[in-house]
Amino acid sequence: WGSKLKFLMQVQETTGSPPTALLNRPKLTLWIAPYYEAYSTLNGSRQIGMNGAGPIPLSEIDAYTRLYGITDQDEKEKYVTMINALDSAYLKFYAAKRETERRTHGK
Questions:
Q1: Which tens digit of pLDDT belongs to each residue from 23-67?
Q2: CA–CA separation, 15 vs 21, rounded Å?
Q3: Contact in structure between 70 and 79 (CB atoms under 8 Å)
Q4: What is the largest CA-CA distance in the chain?
Q5: d(Cα 1, Cα 25) in Å, to the nearest integer?
């Protein structure tokens, strides 16, 4: 929903009822918020090549945890696990989108 959220909220204000996309919007629970924030910060650190987006490097996750003072080893491992899970979902989405575009546009 990201960049579309403002538009969807305007549609709701204009029409008086929420669009389906807004009703079906996933809700993040508080416990996942710091991991999602870390993922969002690190998302731009991935390399993009001829074959598309690569994963977020482990070195970047390590640098993030050091920068933000996360020193507990179990917590660091949780950050790695959660960021990798979010990243895996993104990479699957990105690959499917590229494949659809390839088939549609013959690239």
A1: 887 776 778 889 999 999 999 999 988 888 899 999 999 999 999
A2: 14
A3: yes
A4: 50
A5: 7
